[in-house]
Amino acid sequence: MTIKQPDWEAIERAYRAGALSIRTIADRNRVSDTAIRKKAKALGWARDLSEQVRKEVRNKLVRGEVRDDQCANPERDAEIIEEAAEEGATVVRSHRRDIRKAANLANLLMDDLLTTIKRREEIEDAITEETADDESGFRRGSMLAAVALPSNAKTLFQLSSAMKNLQVLERTAFGLDDKEQSKDSDELSQLMDELSKDA
């Protein structure tokens, strides 16, 4: 039985792109991270394209173009950047869709809460009528508590917190709060690791 050799060209591309940690690259290619480190050192691979990958991800998201005049092998580097940027852009687009769905759901829940508050007296009368024949007041008490002011206030607080979090996520996903990013390639690697765990 022959053992399949690692695809060192694909490993080099992922390594140089800097979008994934060495451990993740190793896991995906069924090789040890130590072997990758040794190979990278022996062949002089550098994780030198992560900043360009970040730029290209942003460019893809706004349909821009990337220019790079500083690469030792521009064609090959451009391929690596394109590949990593496409993966990053796909992830961000997916997050944008998910955030929009969650925001729409939070808005629907907020509308339901508003309707409940506006119609509280009507709902309370309906509950009283529905539970008139109950021997114990437990069901009536539970139903009235669900539409009472403290319950509504708690729901409002939870929805407000959810919407606040969604707004932060949305602003991040659309790059509206773009702060100066670190040039350290580990930042992007860490992000891509977390995303690959969720996938």
Number of strands: 0
How confident overall, as mean pLDDT?
78
Give a quick account of the main beta sheet: strands, pairing sense, barrel closure.
none
Helix content: over 70%
How does this structure look, described?
This protein is mostly helical. 73% of the residues lie in helices and 0% in strands. It is built from nine helices and no strands. Helix 2 packs across helix 3 and helix 6 (120-130) packs antiparallel against helix 7 (138-147). The relative contact order is 0.12.
What are the main properties of this structure?
elongated
Task: State the gist of this model.
By secondary structure, this protein is an all-alpha fold.
Per-chain topology:
Elements lengths: L7 H10 L4 H8 L3 H11 L6 H12 L12 H45 L1 H11 L7 H10 L1 H25 L11 H14 L1
Helix pairs in contact: 1-5, 2-3, 4-5, 5-8, 6-7
